[in-house]
Amino acid sequence: MESDMVKVRVPASSANLGPGFDCIGVALNLYTEISMGFTKEGLFIEVYGEGASDIEKDENNLVFKAAKKVWEEIGADFKGLKIEIHNGIPLGSGLGSSAAAIVGGMVAANELAGGILSQEEILNLAASMEGHADNVAPALNGGLNITVFDGKTVYYIKKELEEELKFIAFTPKKILKTEIARKVLPEKIDFKDAVFNTGRSSLLVAALFSDRYDLLKIASQDMLHQKYRSKLIPEMYSCFDKALEAGAYSVFLSGAGPTIMAIASIDNAKKVAKEVATVYERDNIDYKIYELRCENNGAQVIKASLPI
Ligand code: HSE
Asked: Is the pTM higher than 0.85?
């Protein structure tokens, strides 16, 4: 990394948490690091880590596209750009890799431009680019975020979660693009399914805001998206059963999947991980387990630009 580049660290995130489709998300302690600096001409992008060979290194790169949005917004221009990405978030896994790229690109671009946009303005811009705020809000703010995005503005409340609460991610090696996982969803849903989710989603927020983890099992149930997506993730219900049998507080599809996320106490995390792993072994699915916690800090500039 060259001396006049800025460096931003952005956390992964898990969206939906069961019933909070497109609204609820939590930041996790898995990161992507993005360095960015102006050059005299051209675009140079280097990528290391997760998905390095699959990430575009030209104008189609998401970090670059997000940075450009910031400069368009503030009327700034650039001659040349260098971007270096060290990515620790698996791509297409339901752990918010796209949101981290968007947020990281925007925060870095804003820092290079002298920090003109506020955090709220970056959030609105990031949500507009992603289409919903359930990943971009926790990626930017850290913690648990309850969001509503009306197409222009993100309205949200952030809650920090305690470190002892473990988020165990079971991530198959296969990539599932969000657009594919959204295509299997119905255009209309039953009134009773809407009522089911309204209750669960409300209880989920109340339970997480009052540390009532005993309620998470019921509060994480969902009728809006998981059952439809299970066609793409056949191991899903077996994983759910194993996690709950092992004493997890709750278990759900992380974002659009295919990662399955279990929440467990620090004492029970190893048992939950071991039991759910038997499903992947049984079905011969190549997978990885991440034992995570809520990251209460959002995107951070860890190397600032020189004053301009
Ligand atoms: N809420 C989104 C979904 C998350 O479930 O499709 C993925 O971006």
From this structure: yes
Question: Which residue, judged by its Cα, is nearest atom 3 of ligand 1?
Answer: 256
Predicted local distance difference test score (pLDDT) of residue 6: 96
Residue 98 CA, ligand 1 centroid: distance in Å: 11
C-alpha separations of 185 from 2, 105, 181, 225 in Å: 45, 30, 7, 6
Q: Is 162 helix (H, G, I), strand (E, B) or coil?
A: coil
Pocket test for ligand 1, best of 17, 21, 201 (most atoms within 8 A of CB): 21
In this prediction, residues 201-215 reach a mean pLDDT of 97
Tokens of 221: 């149930």
- Six-digit token pair at 145? 């975020």
Rounded to whole angstroms, the Cα distance separating 78 from 81 reads 7
Say how many Å lie between the CA of residue 284 and the centre of ligand 1.
26
Q: Are 255 and 16 in contact (CB under 8 A)?
A: yes
Structure confidence at residue 1 (pLDDT) = 58
Per-residue pLDDT of 103-153, as tens digits, reads 999 999 999 999 999 999 999 999 999 999 999 999 999 999 999 999 999
CA of 134 from ligand 1 middle (Å) equals: 8
**Alpha carbon distance 117, 105 (integer Å):** 13
pLDDT of residue 3: 58
Average pLDDT rounded to a whole number, residues 232-260: 98
Q: Choose among 21, 259, 52: nearest CA to 134.
A: 21
Residue 106 structure tokens: 């925007």
